Amino acid sequence: MIDIQKDLAVQSYCFRNFKDNAQVADMVRQCGLDAIELCGVHVNWAQTETFASVIDTYRKAGVRIVSIGVNGFADNEGYERTFFEFVQAAGAKHISCDFKLESVPAAYRTAERLADEYDVRLGIHNHGGRHWLGCAQMLNHVFEQTSPRIGLCIDTAWALHSHENPLAMIERFAPRLTGLHLKDFTFGPDGGHKDVVVGTGNLDLPAMHTLLKKIDFNGLAIIEYEADPENPVPALTNCAKAIREKMQ
């Protein structure tokens, strides 16, 4: 079972208004965290010559790069290989991902081959009710066609957006569960969603922790809070505090 008290990370998209990686690393530490999943806002996958500098910036700040994502796969092996090269250089073992619908099933085969070559796990990001991979039925269909290299990095808030129970999804896909994007929404009368501090909306953190212990979860736990992009540190600090208090 992952030690969420120690191994909690944050998605770099939370800091999307800040492009300097040294500044982002410092903000991660201000949140009381020391691990990050880097997205394309902070790494240009087409500029491989910048990879070493990005990785070194986080290492010097004492911030571990545990994953990258959400990265899209579309059966473009040359470009997609750069994802794995970055992960390998950073010492990570995970990529949260998406698949372009028009490129499957060929994209599955390319992703599986690269994941095998680099010994990396891929976790599909279920991006809400409007996304083709947002519902449990479609995810099950994908997993029936793919190897265990491709699993689920469940976004708990987008699961709620899809009218799915995130705890039920965690239990159903436990063998394929690679990570958690710990995010929470509230919903208005018109169905619109609002980011809130994790555990203060519709996500039951204590029940999730009980379930994660039951399935002996050993994947990643990554905070994602998309509101307040101009000043995300206070809310992210509160997210980390709530998770640590309610998931112990």
Q: Your description of this structure?
A:
This protein has 248 residues and is α/β, with parallel strands linked by helices. The chain starts with a helix and ends with a helix. It is globular, with a radius of gyration of 17 Å. The mean pLDDT is 96. Helix 4 packs parallel to helix 5. It has helices spanning 4-7, 21-30, 51-60, 77-90, 106-118, 136-145, 156-161, 166-172, 205-214, 233-246; strands at 8-11, 35-38, 64-73, 94-99, 121-124, 150-155, 177-182, 184-187, 193-196, 220-223. 40% of the residues lie in helices and 21% in strands.
Which labels suit this protein?
248 residues, alpha/beta, 8-stranded parallel β-barrel, two-stranded antiparallel sheet, 10 helices, 21% strand
- In terms of DSSP E residues, the strand content is 15-25%
| Largest beta-sheet details | 8 strands, parallel, barrel
Quaternary structure state of the chains depicted: single chain
Average pLDDT taken over every residue:
96
Instruction: Give the helix tally.
Output: 10
SS elements, strand count: 10
Strand line-up of the largest beta sheet: 1-2-3-4-5-6-7-10
Instruction: Write down the secondary-structure element order.
Output: HEHEHEHEHEHEHHEEEHEH
What's the N-to-C terminus distance? 12 Å
Rg computed from alpha carbons, rounded to a whole number of angstroms = 17 Å
Spatial shape: globular
Structure class = alpha/beta
